[in-house]
Amino acid sequence: MEINAGTEQRSGAEGRFGEVGRYQLHERLSLGPFTELFRAASRGEEGFEKVLVIRRLRRAAMQNLPFLAEFVRLAHRSIQLSHANVVQWFDLGVAPFASASDTEGRYFIAQEYVDGMSLGALLERSRADGRALPVELVVFIAAEIAKGVDYAHRRRDDANLPMLIAHGDLGLRSVLISFDGTVKVHFEMASAMRMLASDSDFEGDRHAAFQSPEVRRGEPATWQSDIFALGALIVACLDTVPNELADLVSVACADDEASRFSSMAGFHEALLDVSKAHNWHASGHEMAEFIGRLRPSAVARAEDRFVGRRDELRQFGDTLIAAAKRTARVVTLTGPAGIGKSRFLHEVDRRLTKRGYDIGFYKAVCAPSDARYSSLVAMLNSIAERHDEMTSMRDVDPSVVPELLPSVVRVLSEKRLSVFVWEEAHLIDEDSASLLVALFPAIANTRAVFVLSGLEEMKHQEQLRAHVAIRLDPLMEQTI
Predict the structure, then answer these.
(1) In the Cβ-directed half-sphere of 411, how many Cα atoms lie within 13 Å?
(2) Treating both helix axes as pointing N-terminal to C-terminal, what angle do 310-324 and 341-354 enclose, rounded to 10 degrees?
(3) Range of weakest confidence among 77-86, 204-213, 261-270
(4) Model pLDDT for residues 146-186, shown as the tens digit of each residue
(5) Which range, of 10-24, 40-54, 319-333, 416-430, averages the lowest pLDDT?
(6) CA dihedral 112, 114, 21, 11 (to 10 degrees)
(7) Cα→Cα distances 156→78, 161, 165, 267, Å
(8) What is the pLDDT of residue 454?
(9) CA separation, residue 254 to residues 84, 229, 261 (Å)
(10) pLDDT surpasses 70 at 108
(11) What pLDDT, on a 0 to 100 scale, did the predictor assign at position 307?
């Protein structure tokens, strides 16, 4: 079984995730505990096609009625935002579950597709490449963010009443930068997502470093807390804050709300003033040039092809060959954020599906949690969504996981080669990591492959048997 490592068009995978409403799903971009994200297309007459993003709720989210009410409220609010520096929301709808046993369906949102990367990914890639983000570009990015957020702060409804919108979760991953140099703020659903998990579990707490003192005290987010967050973002983008920006950042990040800029518009004006005073001239053109140098292959992306990773694909293919002979394997797939680990796994799945191989692919996402076996319960939930006869495994009591998981793995791997992927595996809980090591001998003679995909080496990695380590590093031109 060979996974062809050459460059191929992705047309064979088009629409393979089905449709929701009038949107055709092309590629899964991410899978979280409560939502999944797809690159999709809306098609019209005469071959018209608009690429966008579909964010669809998962089963666990649909079971929380207070969350759903907040989700719908925020969706209606965000759909009314239309600005060049804000990610546009187009549609809110309901799509049926994949399972025939479900009748009510689940919510989805259609959003603007930004062909680029998050500010967090930009910083990680630039620093890994030895390229510090120039101060003039940092000021440009901050000023563009300020324009988008100020627009939301000032937005009025159809009755001309203030909508009183605060972002509330501004951080490195809620700012997107396109390859043409446009900066866009993504108004996510922080208040709704917090209703699904405790603060320690909430994925949005990755932005805790940008939260103002009042938000950390549990007070509602306000315009002033957004100003604090933008000041903290400026600090995060620079290795050292230059003296020219120190006073401005100090005002934005003041502990006392009254001591900060009175409005985001005032912060924006201050950024323009300091840029003009020190001749920091930057625009979308310079931004596009900088981000373009961090793009692995502009030609390949324009042609929408998966390129490179020949050795890694071949190594993964050899692992599947071994597992198909009833010799279970564990793969650790590591690399920095934004390097393409999820894209790599999707490409493996796509190529195998295109060649007609009947292989099961199950994906779960690890998240910080105090619950026992939370990462393994997430995998059982993912399996239950794919098999109607296993719906009773959904949200099982953690006490049954040590016995249930190896049994399920054996059943699935008896029917066909099965791949079980844990994404964000550097966040795997201690109980799940220990159990995976302990149960491996019990499934050693099955056609199973465990894939732990994350930023760094996993817990207990040295104890894993039949372990294959695959590291994704930045692509060099000669490897494309």
Answers:
(1) 11
(2) 60
(3) 204-213
(4) 999 999 999 998 899 999 999 998 999 899 999 999 999 99
(5) 10-24
(6) 160
(7) 12, 5, 9, 21
(8) 87
(9) 29, 11, 9
(10) yes
(11) 57
Q: Which of 63, 160, 78, 152 is nearest to 111 (CA)?
A: 78
At 345, which amino acid appears? Answer: L
At 113, list the tokens: 């597709």
Q: What φ, ψ does residue 324 adopt, rounded to 5°? A: -65, -20
In this prediction, residue 5 carries a pLDDT of 37
- For the chain, give the secondary structure using H, E and C: CCCCCCCEECHHHCCCCCEECCEEEEEEEEECCCEEEEEEEEECHHHCEEEEEEEEECHHHHCCHHHHHHHHHHHHHHHCCCCCCECCEEEEEEECCCCCCCCCCEEEEEEECCCEEEHHHHHHHHHHCCCCCCHHHHHHHHHHHHHHHHHHHHCECCCCCECCCCCCCCCCCCEEEECCCCEEECCCCHHHHCCCCCCCCCHHHHHHHHCCHHHHCCCCCCHHHHHHHHHHHHHHHCCCCCHHHHHHHHHHCCCCHHHCCCCHHHHHHHHHHHHHHCCCCCCHHHHHHHHHCCCCCHHHHHCCEECCCHHHHHHHHHHHHHHHCCCCEEEEEECCCCCCHHHHHHHHHHHHHHCCCCCEEEEEECCCCCCCCHHHHHHHHHHHHHCHHHHHHCCCCHHHHHHHHHHHHHHHHHHCCEEEEEECHHHCCHHHHHHHHHHHHHHCCCCEEEEEEECCCCCCHHHCCCEEEEECCCCCHHHC
* Sequence letter at residue 308: G
Is-contact 53 45, C-beta < 8 A? no
Measured in whole angstroms, how far is the alpha carbon of residue 331 from the centre of its chain?
Answer: 21
**283-303 pLDDT tens trace:** 999 999 999 888 765 434 433
Residue with tokens 């000041």: 231
Question: Where do the domains of the chain lie, and which CATH numbers do they carry?
Answer: 8-112 (3.30.200.20), 116-292 (1.10.510.10), 308-479 (3.40.50.300)
Instruction: Please check the confidence at residue 474 and state whether its pLDDT lies above 80.
Output: no
Residues 419, 394 contacting (CB under 8 angstroms)? no
Going by C-alpha positions, the residue among 376, 233, 239 that lies closest to residue 248 is 233
